[in-house]
Amino acid sequence: MKTTIAFLLFFNISLLFAQSPKITGVVTTKKSTEKVAFATVSLFDANKNSFISFTTTDENGKYEIPLASAAFYIKIELLGYKTLQSKTFASTTKNVTQNFDLEEDSVALNEVVVLQKKSVIKLSRDKMIVDIDKAGFGNGNDGLETLSKLPGVQLDKDDNVVFRGNANLQIMIDGKPSLLSGEELKQYLKSVDGANIKSVEIIANPSAKYDASGSAGIFNIVLKKSAATGLTGNARTSVGYAEFIKSNNGLNLYNNTEKWNLKFGMNYGYVESVNRRTIDQTVETPTITTTLQQKNDWLPVSNNYSGNFGAGYKINKNASMGASANYSLYKSDEFTKGRTNEFDDMVYKRYTILNTQNDLVNNTLTGTVFYNFASDSLDTKIDAQLNYANYKNDSDRITTNSYFTSDTNEMYRNTEDVKYQNPTNFNIISARVDFEKKINDKFNFETGSKLSYVNNDYTIILKDRNDQGEYITNTNRSNQLIYKESILSGYGITNFTKGNFDIQAGLRAEYINYNATSLTSNNTNKDNYLSLFPSFSINGNFKNDQFKFSYSRRIQRPRYLYLNPYFEYIDTYNVSVGNPNLTPQFTDAFEVVWIKKQKTSLSLFANFSKDEMYQIIDYNTDTKITTLSYDNIGKSKTIGLSLNTSITVKKWWEAQLSSELTYGQATSDLEGYKFNDSGVSFSGALNQSFTLAKDWSATWNSFYSQNGAYGNTTFKPNYDMSFTMRKDFFDKKIRLNLSAQNVLRKSQWIQSTKQDNVTTNWVNRWETRKITLSLTYNFGTAKKKEVKEADLNEEQNRL
């Protein structure tokens, strides 16, 4: 392991190579000489009048392009400015420095034209970028709800985000890993205001630079930032109603100077909602067929408080540093009421009344310290980060089950009272350094290393109520688990350019050492292993077409709770238990992409997994308890075709179409749980935006999803549509937004699992047909920077 990582990091000192000629410079505006960011700078062969390569200016207006051995000219394009074509430069073996001034296009700067030209979905390199603001996905929604509205994304029966049928996603915020996962990540995303999300970058097949976790890829949530110097900000408030009331209020302040970038934000949300779950389970035996019909309504009333602060300082023209911190407090008073009807050979025999009261409080604190360096020629870049996350959860739940006969409505057994407490405390820290060096005009090298450490204290205290009304700890079902994990990783990536083709090859090594100790039983489960993750891609860049082939190896490690061999009590009929023998799942991911005129993309992707982690359903005919656990069943494969295109129907009407067709197969070799099943899935989304007169705009978003069989599980389709209407006032300082979401009330998760003699049907329906009215006020006397709305967000922007 040490040899592998040392080999990857050795290239940090391999930098003394000759530099090939290149052209560099700064792009500014003609009138104000302000720096112009995110302009497209293209290099053309003057003799053949053919495209060679392109780049974009950074936030300081700088650009750099390697030169070919031919006469050339430069073309610079940016929405809102007239296209600039330079004079012809003679072939040279020396570096060329050339600055350019762009002239504003008075017609293109018209706000209505700018808005309609900006697509909801943009493709850039290895990313698909979804403009959350334009699509209308954010207003009135939290971060989790906002993600669920992205093309190809759903929430499953447990509220996990599923992309391309896979819930194993890695979530990043402003280019930094969120550090949290599972239930903790879901609660954190609920504390994020969707109205504060600018865009989401979907990276379906990441390179070796990224952590290898997440076989479904990476979602990078990009938060809104100020594009002005001086003091600016916005205040917003919203109120919504579906079956219950909800509101959200927030304030963001920005102060940008030549040296400092400061940000402060706070948010408060109040939500009353409902989640309706139905589970029908049928068990067939030679002597009797038992049916359980369970209906539960989960009714949470939550208050969410969050705040963030960030500061960035420009040390000099090449280096910057800064820090940011986010804190959220989530308090929820949750009541669940349910009823389970029991049938023997279709004859109604018994029923159970369920009541659960849960008081939930969790605190999340995340922080980052960073340093960035870029040389004058932009051929050397260094990015260093130190990240920290602390998550504390305190859950105090009392569940009461009362048992009755159907004919007499009399109790046939004593009421069962169970008190379930789940205090948790997670501490996660990670440090990483990334280095990039351009050796010459054809060769580029990147390397880096990362060390992360996890210390989790997870406690389950289950108490049964005795005849005297006292709660007595059930020692067989209570447990305190201490989980410690460290991951040391390093990577190296080489980039080679040849004509119109870019080739990238990389290797990542990750060494993990973990120890899960039950303080209750004094049992320890530990392991360590080294894994290698190669990646490869080749891009073809032509005038109107782009092609890409990519491969990467990914891993899905077990959540530490999946390794805990103790029961987690859900209700009388459902419990979950960990599996200390669970091993990681590895995935080989392939993708071929064709992009036409940066408007249409067609992707063919394939994922092949082994040692797949799969949820096992085990039913006990004597106790009538269903136990859920995870095990390594065998292998799976997913092959799919994805299409994204934008259509300008009218000058004021733009449509974005996304569709996906997927074939999935899973094979289980697990004794007592064998199957080999497959199915075809389809999903489609149509997002439409309308730019109307007098500062009116509107969106109409609709989707349809049909998940086919996967393993021993089949799914039924769900579909819905949402609308928004916006009006800007007082020179766009005030925006009024009215939205109606999931108006057809068909957004739900319907799943059926059949294994041997047990069939289980789930229906999970979230609160739908939500109407939200929001008001946003933008204030400040700051001077606007000459920075247009960017489609590509640099991950170095930490604030």
Give an overview in words.
The protein is mostly beta strands. The strands form six sheets. The chain has a 29-stranded antiparallel sheet that branches. β5 and β6 form a beta hairpin. It is globular. The two termini are 35 Å apart. 35% of the residues are buried. The N terminus and C terminus are likely disordered.
Beta-strand residue percentage: over 45%
Number of E-type strands: 49
User: What do the pLDDT scores average to?
Assistant: 84
Q: Summarize the amount of helix as a percent range.
A: under 10%
Radius of gyration: 28 Å
Instruction: Give the overall shape.
Output: globular
Report the major sheet: 29 strands, antiparallel
**Structure classification:** mainly beta
Oligomer: single chain
- State the helix count: 5
- What is the terminal-to-terminal distance? 35 Å
List low-confidence stretches.
1-19, 106-117, 783-799
Give a brief outline of the structure:
By secondary structure, the protein is mainly beta. Helix content is 4%, strand content 64%. Residues 1-19, 106-117 and 783-799 have low confidence and may be disordered.
Question: Which properties best describe this structure?
Answer:
mainly beta; 799 residues; single chain; 49 strands; 4% helix; 6-stranded mixed β-sheet; 29-stranded antiparallel β-sheet
Record the SSE blueprint.
Layout: H1 2-10, E1 22-29, E2 40-45, E3 50-56, E4 62-66, E5 72-77, E6 84-85, E7 96-97, E8 100-102, H2 111-117, E9 121-124, E10 127-131, H3 132-135, H4 143-147, E11 153-155, E12 161-163, E13 170-173, E14 176-177, H5 182-190, E15 197-203, E16 218-223, E17 228-241, E18 245-256, E19 260-272, E20 275-284, E21 289-314, E22 319-344, E23 347-374, E24 380-405, E25 411-421, E26 424-438, E27 443-465, E28 471-473, E29 479-498, E30 501-518, E31 523-541, E32 545-556, E33 567-571, E34 574-577, E35 585-596, E36 600-610, E37 613-620, E38 625-632, E39 634-650, E40 653-668, E41 675-691, E42 696-706, E43 713-715, E44 718-729, E45 734-741, E46 748-755, E47 758-766, E48 770-780, E49 783-784
Parallel strand pairs: 1-7, 1-8, 13-16, 34-38
Antiparallel strand pairs: 1-4, 2-3, 2-5, 5-6, 9-10, 10-15, 11-12, 13-14, 15-16, 17-18, 17-48, 17-49, 18-19, 19-21, 20-21, 20-47, 21-22, 22-23, 23-24, 24-25, 24-26, 25-27, 26-27, 27-28, 27-29, 29-30, 30-31, 31-32, 32-35, 33-34, 35-36, 36-39, 37-38, 39-40, 40-41, 41-42, 42-44, 43-46, 44-45, 45-48, ...
